[in-house]
């Protein structure tokens, strides 16, 4: 039985929420812990499409700290939207940006990646909707992905005229073959659920969000008889090379992001992409 909000982090106004205080609907990230299993279901809750702006990333980062501090037994990452897991990075954070905010934004994304990719507790993404770019990255940081039917997922950055950073690429390479990752990254492929299953980008297909959560729970249950310490040390050892590479290059990575995104050609591309998105949603 799900117990109510353990901690719902930063509100949409950017104010840190406290335990059990205001309604979960106001929160950017809702965390519920199952009394029996100890598993936390973490729900992204930034309508309409869970695009990752600085505030949402901060809320995710704080949530991951809470789970780690509380020695979480496992986390299921999902979304409150009926059709979108996450639309990826909020393009408004990159279009006509203020450099200081942009640096904080990228640094917070790096924090989320470190904490999720390297988390000591087991993690599963219950992908109950579309999951392009940064949305796909969040799911790739998890150890297992269950995806509902008839959605799309992938690192589609090249289609936007931008280059996915090397740590995005490493996360994808960790889930599928190097060859498939190279094809997917260079083409910016958005896979359907069935195609994603075929290349190993997702591990299981679900018929509904409930089914996805049930399958995610079954994955976490597999670790019941495994020593948590042995499990987490093994996971972290396997991922340590990717983690150290970014740790050693954090500042250069932020500078490269700012440089790349502020290029006039990239700004023009983002403008056109935003216009196309707006025109589509106005139809
Ligand atoms: C060598 C190293 C070099 C380093 C250089 C670093 C540079 C790399 C930098 C960044 C990497 C980028 C990562 C990203 O994540 S970029 C974001 C990519 N995201 C997408 O392409 C997805 C775009 N969205 C969609 O395709 C769709 O919205 C959808 C499929 C997710 C959902 O479709 P639907 O339910 O039909 O919703 P709408 O399209 O109608 O959208 C509703 C509403 O939301 C707005 N919106 C959608 N996505 C975003 C977004 N990512 N950011 C901001 N806003 C978004 C959309 O415009 C609508 O707005 P409205 O018209 O005002 O209602």
Structural commentary:
It holds the Pfam family ECH_1. InterPro entries: ClpP/crotonase-like_dom_sf, Enoyl-CoA_hydra/iso. Keywords: Acetylation, Fatty acid metabolism, Isomerase, Lipid metabolism, Mitochondrion, Transit peptide. It is found in: Mitochondrion matrix. The N and C termini lie far apart (41 Å). The protein has helices at 54-69, 99-117, 134-141, 166-173, 178-187, 193-199, 209-221, 228-247, 250-261, 264-282, and strands at residues 2-5, 29-34, 40-44, 75-79, 123-127, 131-132, 144-148, 152-154, 191-192, 204-206. Strand 3, helix 1 (54-69) and strand 4 (75-79) form a beta-alpha-beta unit. It is globular. The chain contains ten helices and ten strands. Residues 1-7 and 10-22 have low confidence and may be disordered. It has one domain: 2-enoyl-CoA Hydratase, Chain A, domain 1, CATH 3.90.226.10. The chain has a seven-stranded mixed beta sheet, sandwiched between helices. Strands 6-8-9 form a three-stranded mixed beta sheet. The structure holds ligand LUC3G6IP. Ligand LUC3G6IP binds next to helix 9 and helix 10.
């Amino acid at each position: 039985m799900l117990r109510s909000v353990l901690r719902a982090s930063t509100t949409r106004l950017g104010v840190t929420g406290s335990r059990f205080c205001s309604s979960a609907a106001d929160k950017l990230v809702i965390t519920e812990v199952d009394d029996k299993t100890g598993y936390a279901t973490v729900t992204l809750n930034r309508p309409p499409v869970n695009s990752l702006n600085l505030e949402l990333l901060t809320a995710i980062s704080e949530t991951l700290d809470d789970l780690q501090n509380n020695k979480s037994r496992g986390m299921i990452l999902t979304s409150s939207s009926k059709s979108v897991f996450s639309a990826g990075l909020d393009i408004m954070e990159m279009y006509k940006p203020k450099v200081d905010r942009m640096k904080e934004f990228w640094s917070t994304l790096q924090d989320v990646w470190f904490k999720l990719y390297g988390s000591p507790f087991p993690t599963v993404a219950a992908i109950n909707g579309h999951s392009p770019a940064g949305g796909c990255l969040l799911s790739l940081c998890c150890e297992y992905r269950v995806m509902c039917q008839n959605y799309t997922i992938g690192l589609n950055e090249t289609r936007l005229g931008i280059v996915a950073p090397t740590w995005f690429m490493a996360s994808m390479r960790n889930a599928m073959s190097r060859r498939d990752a190279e094809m997917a990254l260079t083409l910016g492929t958005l896979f359907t659920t069935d195609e994603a299953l075929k290349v190993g980008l997702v591990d299981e297909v679900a018929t509904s969000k409930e089914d996805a959560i049930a399958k995610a729970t079954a994955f976490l249950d597999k670790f019941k008889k495994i020593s948590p310490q042995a499990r987490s040390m093994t996971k972290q050892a396997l991922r340590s090379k990717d983690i150290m590479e970014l740790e050693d290059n954090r500042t250069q990575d932020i500078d490269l992001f700012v440089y790349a995104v502020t290029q006039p050609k990239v700004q023009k591309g983002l403008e056109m992409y935003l216009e196309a998105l707006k025109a589509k949603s106005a139809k």
